[in-house]
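Justification of resources, computational component.

The compute hours requested in this renewal are based largely on the per-chain cost of generating structure records like the one below. Each record pairs the submitted sequence with a full structure-token output. That output is archived, and it is also reused by downstream analysis tasks.
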Amino acid sequence: MKSIVLIVTVMFIASQVLSLPSVPARSLPPHCPHILCQAVYIPPGCLEYTYLRFNGAICRGCDRNKCQSGY
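The structure output for this chain reads:
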């Protein structure tokens, strides 16, 4: 009897774990590529977000320092 309860319990737990939704590390719109950007500090007043279009979706690009020329 104990073994049947154990088997049913394990099967229930396994079914719950297998049905959990996967959560990505960073939420991206569908079809947006993962872009590798330089990890640099940009002061809040100089921060400018960039966006690009990829397969019809508007995707986030690398942040730009608008107080300096370049990125």
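The longest strand covers residues 51-54. The mean pLDDT is 74.
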